[in-house]
Design goal:
Elements lengths: L6 E10 L2 E10 L4 E10 L6 E8 L4 H14 L8
Antiparallel strand pairs: 1-2, 2-3, 3-4
Organism: Arabidopsis lyrata subsp. lyrata
Protein name: RNase H type-1 domain-containing protein
Amino acid sequence: MKSTTKYSYLRYLMWQQDGLLTFDATWRKDLKAAGLGWTFSPFSGDLPNRHSALCNNVSLPLMAEALAMRATLDNGKDPHDL
């Protein structure tokens, strides 16, 4: 039997004054769940700060995209707080 599981992968980049902020989301239609991830990579060469989260009851890939953006912004207004 063929699997009907669908995945949607979205990636975004935002340039900050002192580094690159990357956030992305993966959505699974069958579970109505999204995986979120975000990373701040400083231009100074320091190690990047990485974070992730899982969200349930996500009905659309666009919602996963919005949740990833919100999680990135909620977890630090200053990139050094990420």
